[in-house]
Backbone:
């Protein structure tokens, strides 16, 4: 299989919302693939029809012509997925370490070219931990390495902002609504007037892919863009992997439609992260970091 040419991206474009700098942020292609496909089905009444299903596909990542990993993904924003994956695996320190990311769906490959290579890449990728992520997520090395050094911003989150966030997710157009079988993640910023703004929304076959894509998006922004308080939302459960990646992105508050695992809970407490789960409509449970949540309980009617 021939690799896409990482030195001269063939379909280079500036993705919406990305910050251009004179210092060299990586050149990214703008490769896209259909997110869904139509398939024939038969329902419980024997009626034939067609439905949309997510178009899962494999993407093999090569770093400086060395095969690293194959990701299973929808392919919505593959360049940001690859960048975020490298960041969350701690293989690079910032987007400035990367010269270009070239994705070619004809060969299902992503070619990453770095400026100076990745130090001790063979040693650092020798140990692989299979996580609980959908689609068999994995991380290289020790999951817990370095988490005690993480310092999260002193951010507060009101109950009204939580409800506004959940409502924004409810109204968001999504592949899940048309085809199901995917996870969604979003990054919100907290506004001075008490509102919330959705900065980035990503869906993929696994929540670990979606959060990696958001990590890639963050890495391509100017610091001023994300100077406000940040909140991460996911439809999936809050595992240790999700909590650690959120903390690595400098996000001190995570909200999930689902629950939290024991290890996710322990990590959240350890790094001082506010973990909120079972967040639907006006219901939620705060599992950790309650000091970051400003409660505004509604009065009980009757009784």
Residues:
């Amino acid at each position: 299989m021939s690799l896409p040419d990482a030195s001269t991206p063939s379909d280079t474009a500036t993705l919406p919302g990305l910050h251009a700098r004179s210092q060299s942020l990586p050149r990214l292609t703008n490769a896209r693939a259909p997110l869904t496909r139509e398939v024939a089905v038969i329902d419980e009444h024997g009626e034939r029809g067609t439905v949309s299903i997510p178009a899962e596909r494999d993407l093999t990542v090569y770093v400086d012509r060395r095969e690293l990993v194959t990701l299973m993904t929808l392919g919505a924003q593959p360049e940001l997925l690859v960048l975020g994956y490298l960041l969350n695996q701690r293989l690079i320190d910032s987007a400035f370490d990367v010269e270009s990311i070239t994705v070619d769906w004809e060969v299902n490959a992503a070619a990453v070219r770095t400026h100076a290579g990745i130090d001790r890449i063979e040693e650092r990728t020798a140990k692989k931990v299979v996580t609980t992520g959908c689609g068999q997520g994995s991380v290289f090395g020790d999951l817990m390495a370095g988490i005690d050094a993480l310092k999260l911003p002193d951010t507060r989150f009101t109950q009204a902002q939580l409800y506004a966030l959940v409502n924004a997710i409810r109204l968001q157009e999504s592949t899940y609504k048309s085809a199901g079988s995917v996870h969604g993640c979003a990054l919100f910023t907290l506004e001075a007037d008490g509102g919330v703004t959705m900065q980035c929304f990503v869906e993929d076959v696994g929540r670990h892919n979606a959060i990696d894509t958001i990590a890639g998006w963050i890495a391509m922004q100017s610091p001023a863009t994300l100077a406000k308080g940040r909140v991460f939302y996911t439809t999936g459960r809050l595992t240790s992997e999700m909590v650690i990646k959120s903390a690595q992105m400098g996000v001190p508050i995570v909200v999930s439609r689902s629950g939290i695992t024991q290890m996710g809970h322990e990590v959240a407490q350890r790094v001082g992260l506010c973990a909120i789960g079972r967040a639907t409509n006006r219901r939620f449970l705060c599992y950790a970091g309650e000091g970051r949540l400003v409660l505004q309980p509604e009065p009980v009617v009757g009784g």
About this structure: The longest helix spans residues 159-171.
